[in-house]
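Subject: Predicted fold for SMP-30/gluconolactonase/LRE family protein, 367 residues

User T.R. writes:
Posting the sequence so we have a shared reference for the thread.
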Amino acid sequence: MEYKQRADRRRFLIAGAGAGLAAIGAPAVAQSFPFTPNQRYPDPSVQVMDPSFTRYRIYSSTVEQVGSGMRWAEGPVYFPDGGYVLVSDIPNNRIMKFDEKTGAFTVFKSNANYANGNTRDRQGRLVTCEHSVTRRVVRHESMGRVTVLADSFEGKKLNAPNDVVVKSDDSIWFTDPVFGINGEWEGSRAPREQANTNVFRIAPDGKLTAVITDLVNPNGLAFSPDEKKLYVVEWRGTPNRSIWSYDVGADGMSVSNKTKLIDAADQGALDGFRVDRDGNLWCGWGSNGALAPEPVDMNGRKVLQLRGKSEDLDGVMVFNPQGKAIGFIKLPERCANLTFGGPKNNRLYMASCHSLYALYVESHGAT
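User M.O. replies:
I've generated the structure tokens; pasting them so everyone works from the same file.
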């Protein structure tokens, strides 16, 4: 079904993927980032840090820029039935769509309540974290209907739902830091009502439970392939950003045995990540913005520089299940989040500042 574009407004139909998610879009209008692909095989941007990573590198696959023109790209999710990726453009308050068949990169949904993390549930429906204004987790049904899954806890509004995953038992797990309400860039400034920044679980019957309450601004999260482990990024870790590992109880709801799996060190920034079938963690990576303690002279000015150079840090860091860094995909922009997609679930889509990048790998997403 097609929808005509009118001069005074655009209407977007959000339909469940099982019913053929569709929307009419317009070209992205924002800053575009120039990109020149590498011509050599293997792509020097795909760096082997441990011999074990060579099995995941495809010799004749290079990093591609498949869409640009965003201001802060986040939360990519792939829909196999339609062959497309949705990715949030948070400051522009919209969700973008990349169509694998046509190569078109268009607006999927405007006025998206500053959508951040997205995922697909077991029925193929889009689940979105609206991390400002509405501050809720929603599910997009057929014919444009939206179901609110969570918007408050214990009578108080959520902070700013950030990232979301769906477990095989149909429960939905999401993080609730404060990024969407602590400024005007990724939403609208608003008072915080929750005492903690929690990791929540929405049961299949709709019951909302705070599963983890002691992390400072939890961010990305994912389960191990067997769902016996839950991994969560702590954005304000002590002393550095970290990924914590938890054992998931036999009840499928409780977690225990909090263990630090990955420490990003004083220069790196962990954000979103995905797990492959072998249990490796493919992590968005870049500078955390930390400044050096002493200024340097630059053209007669004293300037505090970053501790680490963004051009050396931007990309995707790959860790094995034991937390050892085994590979790095160097990108010209900081990668915030990523997902596996493509017909064979072996195309890595990387949401990176202004652009969406893709790379075929000899690995497959766990879900």
